[in-house]
Amino acid sequence: MGGVEVIHRVEEPPKRSTWQKLKGRLKETFFPDDPFRQFKNQPLKHRLILGAQYFFPILQWGPEYSFRLFKSDVISGLTIASLAIPQGISYAKLANLPPIVGLYSSFVPPLVYAVLGSSRDLAVGPVSIASLILGSMLRQEVSPSDDPNLFLQLAFSSTFFAGLFQASLGIFRLGFIIDFLSRATLVGFMAGAAIIVSLQQLKSLLGITHFTQQMGLVPVLSSVFHRTNEWSWQTILMGVCFLVFLLFTRHIGIRRPKLFWISAGAPLLSVILSTLLVFAFKADKHGISVIGKLQEGLNPPSWNMLRFHGAHLGLVIKTGIVTGIISLTEGIAVGRTFAALKNYQVDGNKEMMAIGIMNVVGSSTSCYVTTGAFSRSAVNHNAGCKTAVSNIVMAVTVMVTLLFLMPLFQYTPNVILGAIIVTAVVGLIDIPAAYSIWKVDKFDFIVLLCAFFGVTFISVQNGLAIAVGISIFKVLLQITRPKTMMLGNIPGTGIYRDLDHYKEAITTPGFLILSIEAPVNFVNTTYLKERISRWIEEYEAEEEQTKKQSELRFVVLDMSAISAIDTSGVSFFKDLRMTLEKKGVELVLVNPLGEVLEKLQRAEETKDIVKSDSLFLTVGEAVSALSSTIKFQVPTDHV
Amino acid sequence: MGGVEVIHRVEEPPKRSTWQKLKGRLKETFFPDDPFRQFKNQPLKHRLILGAQYFFPILQWGPEYSFRLFKSDVISGLTIASLAIPQGISYAKLANLPPIVGLYSSFVPPLVYAVLGSSRDLAVGPVSIASLILGSMLRQEVSPSDDPNLFLQLAFSSTFFAGLFQASLGIFRLGFIIDFLSRATLVGFMAGAAIIVSLQQLKSLLGITHFTQQMGLVPVLSSVFHRTNEWSWQTILMGVCFLVFLLFTRHIGIRRPKLFWISAGAPLLSVILSTLLVFAFKADKHGISVIGKLQEGLNPPSWNMLRFHGAHLGLVIKTGIVTGIISLTEGIAVGRTFAALKNYQVDGNKEMMAIGIMNVVGSSTSCYVTTGAFSRSAVNHNAGCKTAVSNIVMAVTVMVTLLFLMPLFQYTPNVILGAIIVTAVVGLIDIPAAYSIWKVDKFDFIVLLCAFFGVTFISVQNGLAIAVGISIFKVLLQITRPKTMMLGNIPGTGIYRDLDHYKEAITTPGFLILSIEAPVNFVNTTYLKERISRWIEEYEAEEEQTKKQSELRFVVLDMSAISAIDTSGVSFFKDLRMTLEKKGVELVLVNPLGEVLEKLQRAEETKDIVKSDSLFLTVGEAVSALSSTIKFQVPTDHV
């Protein structure tokens, strides 16, 4: 191991034209999963079939569908329907929309998804966070109570733009945009949103009639405690009882996944029980507010309600993009989670197209933003769903409800809807995840806190923006201040490792061996210059102190981890070499990657940096080849 | 070399508390140059002296100042004064300010810089680009001709905020913010700004009286050619003659740096000659517009003109930040360039404080934004300046002008000022730099083009913003799609290198050896998962085709270049291990860096990822240690 006799040269990277390089880069950026792999070397007819199956996954699993699978899907479909109906009504109210829109949104979108979607577990419908954001953003300009029709138009238009945006991300393969929402951001954001949503439920849970229009923690609490005279004890009693019941069944559902049906059925059971109670005791005359009459019938068309111009267009597009990206993140994350559990693949970009088209279709059939809901999908999974047919079963159940059962909800008290929402969003507060983030990465935890407090104290969209901004800033900071290391030899080997990490590693007299662990580009060349000149000065200071005869002769730069370089990076190497030459020190480059080597060679002024006598394949070879020159020259310098 | 017998273990990183790590990180981020190095182990009195010298570099070089140095400084000071006076008047007009403000700005700021600045070559005063931006941004809300007093107030207030912002960047050591303006951005931006500035000079060069208020290429040219009736042949004749003269002397100055005084003196000579011509021929009565009467006297105080409230505060702060950052970039770049030529150090953060304080003081003494100008500093350098005393000499000369010589400018024609500006900004168009960027990095060239066309066709500040946005997007893209490589063994060695780059490298049956060249974090974990699963599938497909008995047993991940990891990265390794285990493949980690290893160990669920039997120091050792296990097991699998 120790002595290295043979020197291996750094090879010229294979020649590729600019076009080939661009093609390779574009492919890695937009098609990292190579979705058209299976199309290669297939006859045309087969390709057409594969293409149809690609866009309509139902063609893939449909022909093999069996009665056995159907039985499972019916059970899980009915289970999620029993959740979807009360949640649909509740979430629509959270978005300041008529309750029936929540049911409409649980009918058409699941059918569209069943045809286009590739996840087998996703339960599609309205979700709490997207409802909250849609309602709160649109309320900035239009009051849902003063002008409900305009508000509804804006909601459908936002849904249209959300769908358009989602589908475009998928079509243009820009799905990586949702990756910018880091896990820490999401955990903090979800918890904050859960608090905000729960606070809004104080209106129905306490029976307050004059509730604030604001969303923040402080204004809501102060408004609630300034109106204690409006609190209704009947409502509070009923709310507490059902909330305890719902939370208890939820707890059972989490502890024993086999008893999923208890937590899944509890909301519907609560609705039925409470409706009966109100009806029996005429409680609606005694301070308990009820939903009231709902119209019957299936989704009316709403394409004539979409607004593509006018005063609120900017807000509508912004709302569409924010709700679109948030609901997409939830849908994709849910799809991936369950796909990993069952060991199948979901294609992120394809899912985006499916969810996007689902929302575009939804926006013209009186539906607002929908996606795959985490809680309902978990129930769906636990109930044993096999394919997207469970979504069809759910949609049919909702259809029956819409056609025949709507009068039954007339006496359903609003307090129950509040309790259902609170129970659903409690699950969004993920304390174990927050603790594990705290333990692993303190900076990520700060991002989490920013998202959480931003959402609870400032506003939903600004809290999210702040957290995303900080996450990206951290990533940029990592490039601005890249990790650099001084390497030392591990005795008895040709291996060189970080001196700070490996205490046994030793320095080689006359050599300063450095490693830069990032692309060298415009954001970090200034830092790298300062950092390296400080190392050289430290070496010289130490040399003076110890009066050793080992003056610095070589700066060896291990470039293995420099994955890319730009024009500033090229100038950096040129400047570094000039600076070192003035001090009589030679710059030695080790193992530059193909692309980096090529760029250094292409720039005229640096062509001579990559001379073959100062270019090595490993640090060990560089040191052993060059230390012989030191042994001869150092004494003559000091004669 | 070949066979590796001894296996070296990956050491535990040394234990450091969160506080120690945070301290180290903060130091690398904010004090990479370790500016207080020299303060260590010094007695208190010495420290105080060093501290005073740190903040007032004049105390450092002042005591050693000699008559010999003074002689050089007087020559260079007079030379730059002869440039500064005509340029000061011209740039003030470019910023829509009274010409005398340009002279005021060449008097106080150089004196302040001489005390605080650490560059010996910087010639301080107003510069073209900052003048252009200041004028064009403020003109969005206030017309300089309708309300000149308000416009002046806003200009001084913007200067105050520019200085405050610059000084804050220095004090809070956030100087790296200017690094986000990459070289490509600057080259494109400067060239675009030069075009815009030159177009504005068509007003004085053609003698047009009704000139457009807009800045873009299209509106200016269309306005110029719609008003051909206003063109004045006398003005054009004079302009062309002097422009040719100025460009010719500039050319000589560039070709022969020793003849710097020709190009340096030419503007003043042109002013004198043209003034005499106008005076002699009474040309101001024949269509040549002149500056007119200027008031005499030194800078009046202007602190009472600063506006910290009112309708335009937002614009003033925005203008301050944009001009502040642009002028700071120019000043720092100029300082560093000449420091490198003369082999001394300028401390970026200290320079920012100096320039910032200079502008804050300037804003209360009737000066607008100033910085170190590239062209004048080059003249200063060529004229042999030794210290900042040349700035003092220049300021004194300007003072004499302000006190006694102002009436002489009464007949100076505006066309000369236009010719001086055009000559100065021509140097900002750096075609060789653009060509070299094109050759080295095509993407950087696109950034350059965006900056150039953005500035010429949209607006100065938006063009800049677009170019900065694209540069940052490129950096983010590099992390979103990090470089990954499949490694192969270079025959006869223990070295593993990129298979695409080294054609001689060969794969090892049963092993997939991968290297990730970036921090693993939330923006790239999804991509990495997809990329690695594609490699595994490719391996399996190939294996099936060739019917080899070498099914995949180990995925070896060379982690040398993974400089950091966050919570998403930790989950990535956990998921990857799970996915591989389901396929019966073991994940082997090679050479994780200290910080990464620590985080993987700290997360409970991944503790067992870093088992000692799947953790190696080099790829070579991992392969040789593990291939023995393959030889025994592969046959039994196939029995």
Automatic annotation (TrEMBL), chains A, B:
Every copy of the STAS domain together lies at 501-626
> Which InterPro entries does the UniProt entry name for this protein?
S04_transporter_CS, SLC26A/SulP_dom, SLC26A/SulP_fam, STAS_dom, STAS_dom_sf
- Membrane spanning segments where? 97-115, 150-172, 184-202, 231-248, 260-281, 387-409, 415-438, 445-473
What SUPFAM superfamilies does this protein map onto?
SpoIIaa-like
Q: In the UniProt record, which is one GO cellular component term?
A: membrane
Q: Which Gene3D superfamilies match?
A: STAS domain (3.30.750.24)
| A GO molecular-function descriptor | secondary active sulfate transmembrane transporter activity
UniProt name for this protein: Cation transporter
| Organism, as annotated | Platysternon megacephalum
